[in-house]
Specification:
It is a single chain. By secondary structure, the chain is an alpha+beta fold. It has 22 helices and 11 strands. It has 4 domains: 133 residues, Beta Polymerase, domain 2 (2-Layer Sandwich); 85 residues, Hydrophobic Seed Protein (Orthogonal Bundle), CATH 1.10.110.30; 108 residues, Methane Monooxygenase Hydroxylase, Chain G, domain 1 (Up-down Bundle); 57 residues, Serum Albumin, Chain A, Domain 1. The strands form 4 sheets. A 5-stranded mixed beta sheet has the order 1-2-5-4-3. The protein has a two-stranded antiparallel ribbon with strand order 6-7. It has a two-stranded antiparallel ribbon with strand order 8-9. α7 crosses α9 and α18 packs antiparallel against α19. The longest helix is centred in the last third of the chain and has 17 residues. The radius of gyration is 28 Å and the shape is elongated. The termini are far apart. The structure holds adenosine-5'-triphosphate and magnesium ion (MG).
Amino acid sequence: MSELFTKGAGYEVICALEQAGYEAVFVGGAVRDYLLGNAAKDIDVATSAEPYEVKAVFRNTIDVGIAHGTILVLFEGEPIEVTTFRTEGTYTDHRRPDKVQFVKSLHEDLLRRDFTMNAIALTKEGQLVDPFGGREDMENHCIRAVGNPADRFKEDALRMLRAIRFSSVLNFTIEKETLLAICNYAEQIRHVSIERLKIEMDKLFMGMNPVNAFQYMGKSGLDIHLPLIPSKRDNLQRAIPFATAVEGWVYLTIEGEFHPSEMAKVYKLSNNERHIISSVIELYEKRTVRAFTIEDYYLYELDELKMVEKFFRTFQQNCSFIDDDEIEKRKTALPIHSIKDLAVNGTDLIQWAALKGGQWTGEWIKKIEFAVLHQTCKNEPTQIKEWFCYEFNREN
Ligand code: ATP
Ligand code: MG
């Protein structure tokens, strides 16, 4: 068994809960990923102990979702999510189940989970509890809802998008009945909060096979009911793999000819994501009509330049491109990389012109920046002084 489950914080948390007389097991994505031979990320523990009982066992806990049975245990500083065995009703607000009921049996807890591969528990001794054939489904690369798929999607429509994101992340197929239920209930996705959709879309973009996922979206009609998913995705194959989730958002924006601020607003993208998308699209539009200029190399980040060229390659065929190394070489070769690199400042200009500082100072710093950038003048104090004194006298 992986060391993740035989020592470390998750293991210790389970030992402590068992010692206190409760049942406790590993569940969720970590167990699935371990069985698939993939690196597991965060560890989730499920337990028969109720939240107040979990809190009594550990010194350091945070109530992250106590009403829904989740306590974050900080074990020697490492956070482990511990959730009480529970069942859940429907999600009227499409965010959280209306009411959860704590239960004593692990089996009942596994029943409320979305897919068979996500409904497997692992004891600290390495025993698997797999009541719905999750392992077999995983061997067959199959995503199958636990129980009746239609009922499960009616309870929580997000599960439809989760099935599709797993088809990208794991490159699995969606089982027939499960897919049919997505076709039948696709419209229900409209009620799910955008924050929950965004999390799944980010994971979909970063998966092994986004093409698979978008094909399922098209086949099931889920794409029609999700905001700002372009109906034609002809360039997707050439756009993947996405190096970051932001690249996925840029792809959708360009393919669908959406406005970046609309994409950012609708999906509540972070300020950082917003900034990257709008810079990249702004430069992409320029790039479609001309090559990168010296100003582009100067004003845009290296990652942005590379992303723009990647999408230029993706969307504009039969054009000449430059590769990443060349972009980097050209950016590195600039005489300055920001105004801070200028060899002179406003005080120097004031001294040379023998005038009081004012608006003119900033304006002339800009002119010097331009001259240095375009190599009209070397970034060196005596040369700049010579250039400045000549040009300044000519204009005044
Ligand atoms: P990831 O590796 O991306 O974190 P995950 O399967 O761990 O994938 P989480 O969102 O972290 O996904 O959820 C943890 C577990 O909780 C899932 O494996 C599944 O058992 C259960 N789960 C999560 N969301 C739902 C849902 N909407 N409906 C039913 N069960 C869910
Ligand atoms: Mg997880």
